[in-house]
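Long-time lurker. I teach an intro course on protein structure, and each term I like to show students one example going from raw sequence to a predicted 3D structure in token notation. This year I'd like something fresh instead of my usual example. Would anyone be willing to generate the tokens for the chain below so I can use it in lecture? Attribution to the forum is fine with me.
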Amino acid sequence: MIYTTLIGGTGNQMFQYAIARSLSIDLKTDFSLILFYNNYFIDFFLKRESHDRYNLNHFNIKEKNSSILKFISAPILGKIKSDFNYIYEGNQYEFDIYNQNIRNLKGDIFLKGYWHNEKYFLHNEDIIREDFKIKTPPSEKNKSYIDEIFSVNAVALCVRRNDYLNPFWKAQLGICTLNYYKKSTDMIAKSIENPIFYVFSDDPEWVKKNIKLDYPTIYVTHNGFDKDYEDLRLISSCKHFIISNSTFHWWGAWLSSNKDKIVIAPEPWLNSYTFEYTIPKKWNRIKCDRSELYEQSSNKIFELHNNDLTLNKSIKIKMEFLKINSFNHDTIIKIVTDSKNKGILKLSNKETKPIFIGYYRGLSIRYIYLDKTISLNSLKISSVNNVPVKIKYIGIKSV
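-- Reply from a regular --
Happy to contribute to a lecture. Here you go:
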């Protein structure tokens, strides 16, 4: 049996379902979905207004005992680790499911992670697409929208804002800027004839005021958070896509059956690069400079440098303390790396869990959020590459 935890909103749950479903096909076994008690109790029983709620029941999913919702609390996790083949994603640099001997494992497998990469299920693509057909019939208004979308050169323009405005997620994930959407719509308009843009967002009033296009535009605002599957069906019915760094929007584009679709996604996908690339190779990437979201403070810059020729590693790191707009009591650390190789840095101290920061070969920029309770003086930075790399301070200077 394959077990997978469901964490986050609909888009995340779809990735978690897809890896378990695909792996169960490969191993010729059953699979089951697990909902953590402490994450989902409020959502299920008190009906909290949140996108973090179970929504896969609207899809054509296949799961053993699918009618039974399973809840476990965090303390049980220790028992799971000892009794199961427990596989924690961590970050995808450290774990690639198809480079492990997972197909030779005996007994139950427990998966915990987000799995934001199509490589985990692309070889079973047709089955995953069939499973993610929405079985809940559309409302009359949504049926009307579907007919209209099919009749025109519809482009889904997707904007994610509400929970991404939280200072932690704003630093970790980042918000797609108006400039990103301007460049993306111009690119689409040059590539297809008579585009009509259908705008989807969790912040409809903001997009109406701020997303002003020189092309026909329709704002789709009638489906609430509890009917996000209706929006997903409408998005995937479009012919082309401009998406935000949202897994929900990712699935809307991926599920489209248009073989000639143009999909535009932001690069980098996340401010803090902790996962292997989520964007499929066939999709278009447009640079999204999120520096306008922050303002520079009068704090310090730490410059670190490593040059160990015996390990064939070389990296320069600059840590710059910023303030996030409208959140002056919290700190954003801007980390700039210039490296000959890709890898991961670990930022840690005694007061918080480690933060893993991925970087590319060449120049990379990441933003990390620290709340006001964390002492900047105790921060430590180290490498978690396969080969350890020593990093030392070469100077501290004022801005």
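Some talking points for your students: The chain has a mean pLDDT of 76. The chain has ten helices and 19 strands.
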